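Minutes, project check-in
Item: structure for the 102-residue chain
Input as provided by the requester:
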Amino acid sequence: MKCLLVFIFTMVAGTVHALSCEGKIIRVNQWSDGQDNKVNFKLKSSEGSMWVQTKTKEQVSMVLLSLASQNHVKVYWSCGAPNSCSEATSQNLCGYLEIINE
């Protein structure tokens, strides 16, 4: 029984995929589908670039602050992470943003 529980735990733990990408926000746009308002930003990293969707006012504030200050930003996905930092399709942000001022 213990072996079965350990096996199930390792299978579940192995399916969690997190990713962080660091770069600069180079473009921002606002989009609405009639129900949700979203602010999308294009993150350019050393791997390439990708569009990221935000929904909360806090995330939008962070995006605009990073764009205005031209500071680098780190985007961390804790769930629903993309496979790489250069995806062709827009990615929903499920995690956090961090502005880097160095």
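Outcome recorded: The two ends are 52 Å apart (CA to CA).
No further action items on this chain.
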